[in-house]
Amino acid sequence: MTLRPETVGAVIVGGGILGLSAAWHLTRSHTGMSHAGMRVLVLERNGLTTAATAQAAARSGKTSG
Length: 65
What we know:
- This protein has about 60 residues and is α+β, with helices and mostly antiparallel strands.
- Helices cover about 30% and strands about 10% of the residues.
- The protein has helices at about 15-25, 50-60; strands at about 10-15, 40-45.
- The relative contact order is 0.24.
């Protein structure tokens, strides 16, 4: 399925942990929430989870000194 920005409820730029988390929460069906079941388009330059988030996670276990 191809989604165009004008056919979705939200467009998120960035497919890292924050962008994907926001998209996931917007698509969940919670009773009484105005965004329940929203169609979301996530835009990412390369592939999902390949940029800053993935690089920062790879370094999180390192310590200096």
